[in-house]
Amino acid sequence: MAERWFLALWPDARTRDALVCQTAGALPEAARPTHPADLHLTLVFLGELDAGRVACVEAVAEAVSAPAFELEIDRLGHFTRSRVLWCGPSCTPEVAQTLIGSLQSGLEGCGIAPERRSFRPHLTLARKVSRYQGHALPEVVIWPVRELVLAFGVSGSRPRYRAHRRWRLSVAS
């Protein structure tokens, strides 16, 4: 298994459709848009994993307890160096930060070192964006986050990403 793996949040169909609708006007003509089914927010990039490490990552994700929460997707941004146009929240809820910390801590036992860069939550909207004109989202998209997803990429395919396994986040009764 040489695919590139990651743990992510995946929007439900309603949220995905709202994101596509609210961000459509921001995509420059020359941009390479992300397939709508590929929209996700990476929590932890894992890289290439063998079957043993996939099993270890699954055990870590299974053991993590986190409540469901909401993300307010309210801004667009541009990573100049990687030429990526993205959308994301202005403010990351504490529960999301705690979830990432718990995952990274558990993944150290799998031999996966925590990311050194600070977490910048975003969903990639398009690649090959040289310049960003500063469009804003017409309306905030409220994303009810209800699950954690272990996924991997398949090169040469669209959509590119495949969900391998999902875990429900706890919902208060």
TrEMBL record:
It catalyses: a 3'-end 2',3'-cyclophospho-ribonucleotide-RNA + H2O = a 3'-end 2'-phospho-ribonucleotide-RNA + H(+). Its EC number is 3.1.4.58. A motif (HXTX 2) lies at residues 122-125. It is an enzyme of class 3 (hydrolase). It holds the Pfam family 2_5_RNA_ligase2. The active site is at 40 (proton donor), 122 (proton acceptor). GO terms for molecular function: 2',3'-cyclic-nucleotide 3'-phosphodiesterase activity; RNA 2',3'-cyclic 3'-phosphodiesterase activity. SUPFAM superfamilies: LigT-like (SSF55144). InterPro entries: Cyclic_Pdiesterase, RNA_CPDase. Gene3D superfamilies: Cyclic phosphodiesterase. A motif (HXTX 1) lies at residues 40-43. Hydrolyzes RNA 2',3'-cyclic phosphodiester to an RNA 2'-phosphomonoester. This is RNA 2',3'-cyclic phosphodiesterase. It comes from Thiorhodococcus minor.
